[in-house]
Write a structure and sequence with these properties.
It contains eight helices and six strands. The protein has 231 residues and is an alpha/beta fold. Helix 4 packs across helix 8.
Length: 231
Amino acid sequence: MARRASPDESIAALARDTLACERCPRLVRWRVCCTAKGPLAVRGSAYHSRGVPSFGDPRARLLIVGLAPGAHGANRTGRPFTGDSSGDFLFAALHRAGLSSLATSRSIDDGLELRGARITNAVRCVPPENKPSATEFARCAPLLARELALLPRPATVLCLGGDAWRAVGRLLRERGELARLPRFAHGARYSLDGLEVVGSFHPSRLNTQTGRLTERMFDSVLARATKSLSR
C-alpha cells in the first residue's frame, strides 16, 4: 500500500506548486511590475514577485483565508500578511490570542511561528487594484481546495472579507457540502460536518483606520472562531 503523504509533505508540495504557477498571465506580469512602484520605505527592496504559499502550522485546525497578497507586503516578502499594515493588525491579534509567537510579521526570516493556525489567500498572486477577475479566482481555486482538504476535523475557516467568504463557499458548494451560501457579514458563520466557517471584515488599512474594524471587533470574532477548537 502506498504511503500517505504527511501534512508537512502535502503543505510543501502545495507551496512548490504555488511558487511555480503561471496560469494567470495578467497576474504574472503584475506581480513583477509592482517592484517598480513600491513606496519610498521599501524602494530598492528585492521582491518575491511570485505566488505566495500559505504559512503556519501544517496541522492547523484554524485556517485564515484572505483575498490576495498585498502588493508591497506579501508580494515583496513572500509570506501572507507580512510587511504591511494589514499584517500588523492581524498578527497583533493572533499574538493576543496565543496563536502567534510574535506580534509583528516583518520578513520571512523573522522567526515568527503560528501555533494551531495557518494563513493563506483565495488568490495567491497580487492582482492590480486588489481585484482578481472571476477567471483568476477560478484558476486559483484548486490550490485553495487542497488547502481545505488538509484541515483535520473539526476545523474552522476564518474568512477575511466577502471575497474570501465567497471563494470558500463556492468550493464547498462544488463539493456538495453547502446548499446555499449565507450572506457575508462581520461575525457571520455557518457549520457543516466538522467544519465551521466564520466571516470577518478584512484588516485592510481602509477598514482599520476608519473604525469599520476595531481590535475589539476582530478579537471577538477570532475568539469565536477558535472556541470550538478547544473542545
